[in-house]
Amino acid sequence: MIAGRLRYRLKTFCPVVGEGPFGVADAEYTEHKSIRAERVKYSPSAKFELHEVYPDYKVTYRIRSAHSFIKEGWRVMEMGSSILLEVRNIIPDIQRGMLTLECEKVNE
Questions:
Q1: Is 32 in contact with 16 (CB distance < 8 Å)?
Q2: Threshold 0.85, pTM exceeds
Q3: Nearest Cα residue to 85 out of 69, 68, 73
Q4: Could you read off the pLDDT of 12-54 as tens digits, one per residue?
Q5: Contact present, 63 and 69 (Cβ < 8 Å)
Q6: Residue 103 CB burial class (10 angstroms; 0-12, 13-18, ≥19)
Q7: Over the range 65-87, which residues count as b (16 or more CB within 10 Å of their CB) and which as e?
Q8: Which of 91, 85, 88, 84 minimizes the C-alpha distance to 72?
Q9: 97/30 Cα distance (integer angstroms)
């Protein structure tokens, strides 16, 4: 593990499940903490839905395994960027002491 590669800062957002105005489960996100990460892969593309073009981003980050509090469904945002990403998969790498986060852009 080379610490110099962890040059990106991520803000993490934890889901807090509450009840909406009509009794439906509603998830709000609260800012948890910021962590350092290595951006491994960044693949932008475009999606066509109902005659509209939606930008789609898939990003893979590598973080230290000490941040194992992050789970699927959490959201992250790279500092200096306005793109909100949702963590879809977490792949542990025990030999290196790292976690790989596979994220997709949130279209709200």
A1: no
A2: no
A3: 73
A4: 999 988 776 776 777 789 999 999 999 999 998 887 888 888 8
A5: no
A6: buried
A7: eebeebeeebbbbbeeeeebbbb
A8: 88
A9: 27
